[in-house]
Amino acid sequence: MEILHISAECYPVAKVGGLGDVVGALPKYQHQLGNFAKVVIPAYRNKYYHTHEFDVVHQAGMWLGHNWYHFNVIKERSNELGFDLYLVDIPGLLDTPGVYGYPNDTERFLAFQVAVLDWINEWQHQPDVIHCHDHHTGLIPFLLNYGYKYERLKSIPTALTIHNAQYQGQFGWDKLYLIPSFDLWKSGMLDWGGAINPLASAIKCAWRVTTVSPGYLEELYYNANGLEALINQERAKMVGILNGIDNVVWDPATDRMLPLNYDEDTITAGKQTNKQHLCERFGLDASLPLISFIGRLVGDKGADLLPEIIGRSLHELAGEVNFLVLGSGDPHIEWSLQQTRAVVSYGFNVHIGYDESLSHQIYAGSDFLLMPSRVEPCGLNQMYALRYGTVPVVRSTGGLKDTVIDFGDKDGVGIRFNQASVWDVCYSVKRAIELYRDSKHLDEVRLRGMNIDNSWDSSAQRYLEMYKSMK
Ligand SMILES: Nc1ncnc2c1ncn2[C@@H]1O[C@H](COP(=O)(O)OP(=O)(O)O[C@H]2O[C@H](CO)[C@@H](O)[C@H](O)[C@H]2O)[C@@H](O)[C@H]1O
Q1: 2-244+456-469 with 264-450: one CATH topology?
Q2: Ligand 1 centroid, distance to 18 Cα (angstroms)
Q3: Could you tell me which residues are annotated as the binding site for ADP-alpha-D-glucose?
Q4: How far is ligand 1, taken at its centre, from the CA of residue 258, in Å?
């Protein structure tokens, strides 16, 4: 089966968060299962682009509203990723160092989608499935169904994966002229709440819609940032498939970003050495439990609660615990964390920014990983933590609920709490410290977590079954 994944991110080419991890791993596993998986993303001007060699496979031009853009589709030459990687290069729009956050993001991703479809339109054959990820590729199912120039692609089955329904990519009807001409009677298939909503459009037009965990699908029926009615209406084509993790990239026994590798047999010494390195770098005390947070500093992740959680815990439990935060996002949250760091003289440090190696070192060197998410469609961090013998401390929501059992229950591997509130988290911090002091119990919980198989094997199979059901 030939599957074409279309996305804004793909690790290690371009990653901002979990979307990149999934699109960098799922195709690899699909390939291993005997399929032909291809990935196409924009050609951002980042390190990967500058350090790899590409062949031009397609050259063309297109109108975006009143502007004409030349574009190239280029293919990575070495095939090092385990699947075919294509980049769409549109100078003047996609040749940015970063992925998102530009004032013309609507135009950038619209042009990306049009370029991808124009390119597929030129193929001698057709892929068996087009798999779109999140709202940046959400207009593709609509254009395939109703766009005049894509008539011959209409019969290709399309799947949409919702990685996070909080982000929908809406823009005003005044930008309608940017969309290639289509059957205007079908305009309603673009609309949600009086705006053009790419995520809603994809939910209406794709043949199947998946969410990244079964728990998140259940939540979306009553809490989907305004799309609840639509998701209920399209219930018949919705499927929840839990994300996996790339067990090759995320393996403490071979991870080249760690100061010392370790496995189940060497976990105690391995984690201690990694923790010492981390604590030395960040001025923390390696003899105390280390609780870390990694992620986008936004309200959905509960990151706004961190300054108060940390301040209050360090006040009540002075000299009993350390905290470390890695992340970037909302400038106000970044500022509050830096202020907290300036006020507390010990037990806390923060690194504002995106740093892939440091994230691996934190998964390895921490005792606990805190995830007070308000919304968590799947969450990969807790699965990485488990693989590295770090106990996840999570709010019972979405995919976190599907993947972490509290250590108080049978086969428990983590700590769970119900509310994204400072009080609930501080209480869980105390439970973490108690568990840390009971080293025999901590070792059992850690080992159980390390032995869980969260790899993509079974989920990649489920995606294939879903594709087959679309025929
Ligand atoms: N500052 C930083 N430096 C280095 N690495 C950083 C970092 N900030 C985040 N990361 C990394 O980015 C990834 C984050 O993954 P998540 O699944 O937690 O989040 P995200 O909300 O982006 O993804 C959305 O899509 C994914 C995939 O479907 C869902 O799991 C998730 O619930 C949904 O919100 C992890 O690999 C993490 O280590």
Answers
A1: yes
A2: 4
A3: 15
A4: 19
Residue 345 has pLDDT above 80, yes or no: no
Question: Which DSSP symbol is given to 298?
Answer: S
Enter the tokens of residue 235: 């219930």
Which residue type sits at 154?
Answer: K
Residues, the chain: 471
| CATH number belonging to the domain at 2-244+456-469, selected among 2.40.37.20, 3.40.50.1820, 3.30.70.120, 3.40.50.2000 | 3.40.50.2000
Q: How many CB atoms lie within 10 A of CB 427?
A: 14
Nearest to 328, CA basis, from 350, 349, 345, 343: 350
Q: Quick one: how far is CA 165 from the chain centroid?
A: 12
DSSP sequence for 333-400:
HHHHHHHHHHH--SSEEEEES--HHHHHHHHHH-SEEEE--S--SS-SHHHHHHHTT-EEEEES-HHH
Question: What is the spatial distance between Cα 196 and Cα 106, in angstroms, rounded to a whole number?
Answer: 11
Q: Domain locations in the chain?
A: 2-244+456-469, 264-450
Query: Model pTM?
Result: 0.95
Q: What architecture (CATH level 2) is domain 264-450?
A: 3-Layer(aba) Sandwich (3.40)
Instruction: Please state whether beta strands 84-89 and 67-76 pair in parallel, antiparallel, or not at all (unpaired).
Output: antiparallel
Q: E strands within 128-172?
A: 129-133, 158-162
Question: For every residue of 375-388, which 3-state class applies, written as one string?
Answer: CCCCCCHHHHHHHC
Residue 17 Cα to ligand 1 midpoint, Å, equals 4
Reported as a single tens digit per residue, the pLDDT across 100-132 is 999 999 999 999 999 999 999 999 999 999 999
**How confident is the model at residue 318, as a pLDDT?**
83
Cα–Cα distance measured from residue 190 to residue 200, given in angstroms and rounded to the nearest whole number = 7
What pLDDT, in 10s, does the model give residues 249-308? 999 999 999 999 999 999 999 999 999 999 999 999 999 999 999 999 999 999 999 999
Q: Is residue 376 in contact with ligand 1, taking CB distance under 6 Å?
A: yes
Q: Is 348 in contact with 340 (CB distance < 8 Å)?
A: yes
> Is this complex's ipTM strictly greater than 0.90?
yes
List residues bridging with 415 in a β-sheet: 393
Half-sphere exposure of 114 (CA within 13 A, CB side): 27
